[in-house]
Amino acid sequence: MRDSIQSLSAIRERIAGDWQSGKAAAWDMALSGHAALDSYLDGGLRRGQLHEIFASSADDNGSAAGFAAMLALCATQPRKRTLWLRTLDAPRQGGRFNSAGLAELGGDPAAFLMAVAPDDTVLLRSAADALRCTGFGSVIIECWGSPAILDLTASRRLTLAAGQAGVTAFMLRLGAREQPSTADTRWSVQSAPSTPLEANAPGHPVLDVTLLRQRSGPAGKSWRMEWNRDQRRFQDPARNAANGNDHSAAPLSGAVVSIPAGKPVTHSWGFKRRA
Amino acid sequence: MRLAAINPLAGDEGLAAGMTLADARAMVPELQIYNSDPAADEDFLDRLADGCTRYTPNVAVYPPDIIIMDIGGSAHLSGGERKLSRSVKEYLGRRQITVRIGLASTTDAARALAEFSSGHHNSEMCAIEALPVAALRLDAEGDLGLRRAGLQTIGEVASRPRSAIAARFGTRAVFALEKLIGAAESPLNPRRHEIPWVFERRFPEPIASKVYALKVLHGLLEEAKIRLIEEDRGGRHFEASFHRVDGRVQYVQVETGLPSRDTKAITRLFDERLDTLADPLDPGFGFDSVGLRILRTDPLKPHQSQLEKEAREEDNSAEFLDRLAVRLGRNRLLTFRSRDTHIPEKSQVASAAIHDTTQHNWTAATQAEPPVRPLQLFDPPHPITVIAEIPDGPPKRFRWHGKSRDVTRFEGPERIASEWWLGGDDPLGAGQWTRDYFRIEDTSGRRYWVFRYGLYGRETSDPQWYLHGLFA
């Protein structure tokens, strides 16, 4: 018994040592799945850091929010939860959160919490507290405009808090201009034409993302990425296009039943595409 | 206008409640009048009843002017019934309130004694029998009838056969009589149900320091913790009450997501709550007692701590969520549950995370299909102007936010009919229209979720288009 306790504590010390010396750094990287991006970022998105996401124009707010959710899905470890913090007037501007949409991106609404703060001050204070909480895998902070309170000090506070418990923070900046911050990476997101499916239907989400700034490395490069919901990772849209052109893989079209008027077409969210 | 109530001075001048104002003015020209406000009176009575919880937890209010306390089992705490009545008289008398106290074993008898009793009697039954017949609270006719029959007191009425009384004055009179003399039940309807998790500290002198009051609260929590550990339970919902000397009571409540007896964490929750109060804790002339009630407890087994680090980490997040729920308000920290409906904006129920800790299952999205629901829905949907080739076809070009967008790809319609079976008065659902949803993509690669409201030609001749959400 005593022996096993000793060996247990020895193992524990070794693990703790690894953590401190940064040997376990690979654990601390969230892979986006997009090979070019991951290698450019030197192994992926750093966990326990603050990442900023900007929409490249007001029309791309939906894409930026989607990108934040996708990155959070990449960064959140299994059995951990995601917290989305927003202010009271955010639903008016960006729309009400729709958990079916999160499920459609590959997330699990049951492991998801939404907190609504009355103003930006409470938002940032709650975010800093949330980041110290090990029960969360990632925290998305939706911040509209450029509030005066969000200065270098505030962002430093968030970075420190995120580093403490290893929770990844995604600051979603909508309708905002760039300003100095301590974020590890800063992204600009724009939607891009998707690879069409049969019958010229819009395909999987494709985004043009630009790495505006990286604290510990080069920046300024852009990638076009497609979100693979089933594997919860990004990929090159081109590869999917090849698949799409491969007609042998496509399901055979059959007779399509005409839609009865006054009745819903679907039973689940997947429905027959009319060729 | 009539006088609703008078003060003793006016009574000395010969005025009485119920007199018309003109008569009263004629008798006392310098009369000062104030509008009667029954709602405020009721509030005041409520506040007094709150204060009376210091004598017993079972307090009932009968507006406009009656408070009934169930002192069974709690009278001895104040040193007996007599001392308790004296204490109540003093407590309320300090506020210039005229108090009449009736002590009896049933609520009706106590009310009647307080209202009509005069003089001293040897026993409760004697006192009740000596009451005038008005104590039965019959209507004017019944009252007069009883007195015409020569029955002046309750005792005299009670000595008659019940059947005779019932025949002449109705069963109501018999019932009132039975309740008065204790032969029929007259239960008390207390304002609050009795809760066993009650802790209290009274002070010999009022304390005016908020800090000290909070320290006392912490002490009460420690006291509660001992009992909680004994019974293997943890509190979920705590209520602190600060009793002021002027009878006002301030309540502060906090809730936790998991059962807890961590006094430090709960004290922190109370601190957080007190910071966010719109009506801050005000000692006024001082608090004379501080109470703590645990309104909800759940089983909480003692657990071995510190062996596995992860267990501790879980607690850390639960505690944070409690604090966040207190800071933002319990309804601003949400989890989502799916609902069985096709209407997109109704397909989820947001519930307070602190209340709803169960995990819910969600339908997984169809494999290899692109997302068919956006992450956020506009509420309400944004109206857009659409150019379509045919009235019931997909959009060709549309205008949103003052910009025209050309559609390159579309998929749809996904037809979602209204839930006509829910509209009770309209079985055919004629007033509710069908929505045809389209997923569309424009030339710049942005993806939208739009719908046409109403079937062309059947439900409307000019269907409106709306943008319901943006896809990533």
From TrEMBL, chain A:
InterPro entries noted in UniProt: ImuA, P-loop_NTPase
Superkingdom of this protein's organism: Bacteria
Q: What name goes with this protein?
A: Protein ImuA
Species whose genome carries this gene? Pontixanthobacter rizhaonensis
Q: What is the lineage of its organism?
A: Bacteria, Pseudomonadati, Pseudomonadota, Alphaproteobacteria, Sphingomonadales
